[in-house]
Amino acid sequence: MNPRFQELPEEKQLAILNAAMEVFAKYDYPKASTDLIAAKAGVSKGRLFYYFHNKKDLYFAVYRYAWKTVTQAVVDEELWKITDFYELHHDSAMKKMAVLSRHPYIMDFSIRSYFSEKEEVSEGLKQVNAQGVDDIFETYFSGVDLTKFKADVDPRRVYNMLIWMMDGYLHAWRMQGTPLDVEKMQHEFLQWITILKNSTYREEYI
Questions:
Q1: Shortest CA distance to 36 belongs to which of 139, 44, 28?
Q2: What pLDDT does 41 receive?
Q3: What is the CA radius of gyration of the chain?
Q4: CB neighbours of residue 85 within 10 Å
Q5: What's the pTM?
Q6: Among 32, 56, 173, 199, which one has the highest count of C-beta atoms within 10 angstroms of its own C-beta?
Q7: What is residue 201's three-state secondary structure?
Q8: What CATH number does residue 163 fall under?
Q9: Cα separation of 33 and 71, whole Å?
Q10: How many separate domains does the chain show?
Q11: What pLDDT is stored for residue 10 in this prediction?
């Protein structure tokens, strides 16, 4: 991130990032107007590009801000005490959905960025998202007791399956063009976890 932007007071930084997030959440990347972002943030367009090299630089600054906001809401001292694979998934998913419901622009921006295709930022997003998935598993599941799984079950494949299921759910929701029902999504997620736990854990841990 440009050092010039980091020198701004936190309040001004957040005004710019939140304004940009709102616009990027509402519009596909090519149609997201930097004029509109500058107006919502209360700065001139010239000043906006004084802080960021270009629109793409601003976009990824917003992406990092959204990621940090969600991570701070999910990762707490209690999370590190959880040693059960599915309990950890449940705990983190509920916290994530709670913060997304309180910050609709973060949710809309995150979903739009996840499904970005054939845009200037698409390739970079794919790389960041793929690395993020790997980092999350290696970091947050390092203390999980994987011996609860059946001998022929690969926990990493189960982890990937949950991600793919969520991916499919969000894609279906986008195709319908209706507002995302967070409570319904939570209910669906709990059902997936129950089904997977019953089919992948040793009997004594069900």
A1: 44
A2: 96
A3: 19
A4: 24
A5: 0.80
A6: 32
A7: strand
A8: 1.10.357.10
A9: 28
A10: 1
A11: 94
Residue with the bigger pLDDT between 179 and 112: it is 112
141-144: long-range contacts, CB 8 A cutoff, minimum separation 24: 141/85, 141/88, 143/80, 143/83, 144/82, 144/83, 144/84, 144/85, 144/88
Left (φ > 0), alpha (ψ -120 to 50) or beta: where does 85 sit? alpha
Name the token pair of 124: 């970079």
Give the tokens for residue 80. Answer: 């590190």
Alpha carbons 80 and 144: distance in angstroms, whole number: 9
Give the C-alpha separation, 103 to 99, whole Å.
Answer: 6
The whole-angstrom separation of Cα 86 and Cα 10 is 37
What is the span of the domain harbouring residue 183?
Answer: 3-205
- Rounded (10°) CA dihedral 147, 149, 92, 190: -150
CA-CA distance, 206 to 203, in Å (whole number)? 5
